Here is the input.
Amino acid sequence: MFDPQLALSIYVRSGNTESVVQGFVESGQFDKIIPYVQSGKQVDFIKVLQGVIPINPEAGLGLAKLICCGPSKYATTESVA
Here is the structure.
């Protein structure tokens, strides 16, 4: 049985930033993404989007809005489209 919270905990400890962000997205914890990234983590958001959209399009849309239209823009609309 897959435990997403356990997986997220392992990703955080291992420093796998893209997997951490993807875990936040898949579990609906969008509010944790920006503080995580602002703590000095480098994230390839386009790579994360490419992994999330086939699995959960609604979560992918939420992430796209967050990184393109949020207070801290991490990607351009053109790069996400």
Summary: The chain is about 65% helix and 0% strand. The chain has one domain: 4-80. The mean pLDDT is 83. Residues 4-80 form one domain.
